[in-house]
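Supplementary Text 2. Reproducibility record for the structural model of the 447-residue chain.

All settings were left at their defaults, and a single model was retained for analysis rather than an ensemble. We include the record here because the model underlies the residue-level annotations in Supplementary Table 4.
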Amino acid sequence: MAENSQVQLVEKPTAAALNRFVKPIDISKLVAQYGTPLYLVDEDTLHAKAKELHSAYSKFKGPVKVVYSIKANFTPAVIKIFMKDGVTLDLTSLGELHFIKQCKADPENVIYTSVTEEPEEYVEVLHSGVRRVVVSSFNGMTNLAKAASKVGARPLTMIRVNPEVGVKAEVRASYRNGKFGVPFNGGTIDSAAKMVKHLMGSDLLKFEGFHFHLGSQITDFSCYTHALDKMDAFMTKMKKENPTFQVNTFDIGGGTPVFYNDPVPTPAQMAENHVSKLNQLAETHGTYTLMIESGRFLVAESSMLVSRIVNTKEYNEHKIVIVDAGYHILLDAALLKQEYPQEVVPVLDSKDRTTALAPVKNTHLAGRLCDTYDVFPLSKVSDLDESEVGRYISFYNVGAYSVVFNMPFHCQTKPPIVMKDSDGKFRLVRKGTSYEHLFREEGGELA
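Retained model, structure tokens:
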């Protein structure tokens, strides 16, 4: 597989790939109770994705930990489900730290990866009991040491490296002179080589290992092959320069793709590309815990958004379908042109239908915002036939980077979130906000 890291996928995507975890009759009941737009989340899917990702790396000859980047969806109910599965939580802000503390997560099962790396931030992180920290700069490492001295803790410190390899992905996180991590070598103190040397001689910090993240929605896995080859050479060099050098934890980040429009490889196909190299690293440099990080893959397919068709218009063989949702609650539709699969919710079982509306050749799905970009790209499996006022449309695979991007453009409020528990029952896990709540939040009482 290493010789051909691009998995060939010739099959066409079908609507059968959609996670229809809620029946049309239940959708009707839920929107009658909570209104639209409405997010729906499936607990069983969350459990299944965590298990699938862990199983994909079963051939790794060492401990494997699945890590959830809660930036993808920090709904407390979602966090608590992953806590049940023993998933490690990856945080990058004090706000996220507050959330996991409120959820009573075990700080021993948390990894903190800051971008700002401020000393006061690290003091709060260490005071909370978190002991595994990823540093991304020499200055950040120094700030962590100051915090460790102040708190009286010796955190397990990992270095985030930037392998500087080419990545073909929707979002790239590894490239030359990039924002995240440090290069292996370089002329300044901000290099992994200099940081390893400093850590190995530190009484305040304990060197734990490495972390890298290459990007999101990766389907060409050659970037992992190249990154791990560079990692191997670097670790060999570090071992020669530092006799006590030992990697205990290695986090290879995320990138596991999710289906939106085109077929994507499975986590097992992804792991097949580089698990032998990961085993070779362990054999050469010593056994370590492998961390597989994910945000998008773990939560995307667990959720759907239900929106009501509020208007339509037709001209020149085109039909504009307007719903009461918008990119304010599905921002990636505008930012990344994310092609969320959509379909009109059936009113009755197909066998009971006596008439069917003729499909319109060119149907466009638009949101309720007064903005040119508020038009939803369509997936190859989207089905907008029978789009009429009053019907509902389901947007699938919206669990990642939608809820967290909710914004009050046009004084829009946050939709409620309802979870389908493993016992099949539905419960409200986030209340929708009101216009009055938004007015107060924006300083209405202070004006």
